[in-house]
Automatic annotation (TrEMBL):
It comes from the Eukaryota. This is Deoxyhypusine synthase-like. Keywords: NAD. One of its GO terms (cellular component) is cytoplasm. It holds the Pfam family DS. SUPFAM superfamilies: DHS-like NAD/FAD-binding domain. The keyword Transferase does not apply. The keyword NAD applies. One of its GO terms (molecular function) is deoxyhypusine synthase activity. Belongs to the deoxyhypusine synthase family.
Length: 124
């Protein structure tokens, strides 16, 4: 039987600390419950570091969409429309992306967002 070097054991066998109150449990989506895209995307918020970032982005995008769909306050409705020729909305959303996304097959997503007035401006 081989002996584990102490430096490796000290790094690997660290005593766990209790999680802070209110922490989310890391847990993935259970596909045995069927595919519910809303719940699947919500599960990203507690599926690990990168998925959590995606989950946070989804939450923020949903907040922007909700704001955009709210009625425009009177004081804002009297202002100048920053997007002439497009309906005035309650939220300005900029889309920024790198040119490789256009050639990577996501140009249809970008086109859809612009075509359906889901973004106010874009920057490449």
């Amino acid at each position: 039987m081989s002996v584990v070097p102490s430096v490796a054991a000290d790094a690997a066998f660290v005593k766990s600390e209790p999680m802070p109150e209110g922490s989310k449990e890391v847990k993935g989506y259970d596909f045995n419950d069927g595919v519910n895209y809303k719940k699947l995307f919500e599960s990203y918020a507690c599926s690990g570091l990168q998925a959590t970032s995606v989950g946070n982005a989804i939450t923020e995008i949903n907040r922007m969409i909700d704001c955009k769909l709210q009625p425009i306050p009177e004081e804002k409705a009297k202002g100048t429309n920053p997007n002439p020729g497009r309906p005035m909305t309650n939220c300005t959303i900029f889309l920024s992306y790198t040119s490789n996304l256009v050639s990577a097959g996501t140009r249809e997503v970008i086109r859809y967002l612009v075509q359906h007035n889901m973004v106010s401006g874009k920057m490449v």
